[in-house]
Amino acid sequence: xxxxxxxxxxxxxxxxxxxxxxxxxxxxxxxxxxxxxxxxxxxxxxxxxxxxxxxxxxxxxxxxxxxxxxxxxxxxxxxxxxxxxxxxxxxxxxxxxxxxxxxxxxxxxxxxxxxxxxxxxxxxxxxxxxxxxxxxxxxxxxxxxxxxxxxxxxxxxxxxx
Length: 161
Prior knowledge:
- The chain is mainly alpha-helical.
- It has four helices and no strands.
- It has helices at about 30-50, 55-80, 95-120, 125-150.
- Helix 1 packs antiparallel against helix 2, helix 1 runs antiparallel to helix 4 and helix 2 runs antiparallel to helix 3.
- The longest helix is centred in the last third of the chain and has 28 residues, at about 125-150.
- The radius of gyration is 23 Å and the shape is elongated.
- The mean pLDDT is about 85.
């Protein structure tokens, strides 16, 4: 009488998507947009912060507050994606939250950049800050568009038409 013995071997391997850190997010379109926005806002803030001889104190105080506020918010959203924290807080609608952040940020940074461009008075650091503000506005508008397509785009339902 012959017997057949079958042995199976199971190995546990971790893929890059299983870890705590989602490094792959940095190379996606939304991740690259967030990195670009953070860099533009940080440099714009530093240009205004380090500039001397502001021609209009109130205008550049507003610019500093807006750029710093949305820089901090972008860092928080970036870290949320990087460490996959959205799944740990399902009570918050994250796509809608980011859509709201981008819609308000796009408008306020655009206004701050216009005010900074008008009030720069030929100070090169302030002109550079306003240009970087416009670049951040453009990047936030692109992020707004992509988050709109995720949040408010066509959703499939199970109903037949």
